[in-house]
Amino acid sequence: xxxxxxxxxxxxxxxxxxxxxxxxxxxxxxxxxxxxxxxxxxxxxxxxxxxxxxxxxxxxxxxxxxxxxxxxxxxxxxxxxxxxxxxxxxxxxxxxxxxxxxxxxxxxxxxxxxxxxxxxxxxxxxxxxxxxxxxxxxxxxxxxxxxxxxxxxxxxxxxxxxxxxxxxxxxxxxxxxxxxxxxxxxxxxxxxxxxxxxxxxxxxxxxxxxxxxxxxxxxxxxxxxxxxxxxxxxxxxxxxxxxxxxxxxxxxxxxxxxxxxxxxxxxxxxxxxxxxxxxxxxxxxxxxxxxxxxxxxxxxxxxxxxxxxxxxxxxxxxxxxxxxxxxxxxxxxxxxxxxxxxxxxxxxxxxxxxxxxxxxx
Length: 361
Prior knowledge:
Elements: H1 7-12, H2 20-29, H3 31-37, H4 41-61, H5 65-82, H6 93-103, H7 120-137, H8 148-157, H9 166-175, H10 201-221, H11 223-231, H12 237-248, H13 251-254, H14 259-277, H15 282-285, E1 290-291, E2 294-295, H16 300-319, H17 329-338, H18 343-360
Helix pairs in contact: 4-5, 5-7, 6-7, 6-9, 7-8, 10-11, 12-16, 14-16, 16-18
């Protein structure tokens, strides 16, 4: 059980300028590694986990680019090996949750430098943000063609951190009997990453404000990444208010970003999630599916609630003339046809048609 990667295997993962995908391919070429993995995925995963534990200790006393690279590549490989297992049943979910809790929120961020020694806090920052992104997105391919150096640039220098509700994953572990159940904390928000059960409301607000400031910064420096965040925001009032504010203040236009495609993509994202909510046995299909850190609910009631929130948002866009009606025409048609059984949808359709008649008149 204490087996870990050999020195030759570790060297294959220690290049900070090698893509994660390439580093893992080099690992697979090692003869000893091929012999080890023939015994099964779980055994291979344990070797990676033991290596992570050892190098976490090394990162505290002797942080280096090599140590950062080994940690990044081991976490990446561990996730890839186990990605087909539903998250709540994944034997390494507790490892990822506890790593985020244990490493907390490192303090050293925003030091813009292309070279030089890496600090323990920076190693922790990169590892925590990588884990959060893997667990939330379920898409390791986004990191296949990126290097540990680039991850450091993104997460430390550019401060591209993400909101993360750790209570969602702790709840999964409790429901599976891995953790003992604890009272649900008041601080069950997408900003909770540490192990404390709750935070004061002001703290949560400040964290959300920091996230918004970070997003506004990324709209200037990394627009593609920021737009992806915007189009995958959760279905909740705070998200809708934030998008509405961006349109009212013409923030996107001032940065040369056309707002209509962004909003249309967000609405499509919501429609796809809402569609899944109402599918037969959706509770099984959506098990562990997350909408930007939040567990997606299922069933007719949850579907109706999501549609009503979306209608509120779209009605506001139309009433305030924040977008041309034709820019979201197909989204309006879809929601009016697919959810005609909801009374508010029929009212919304009448509202849109009345507006079109006034325009024609």
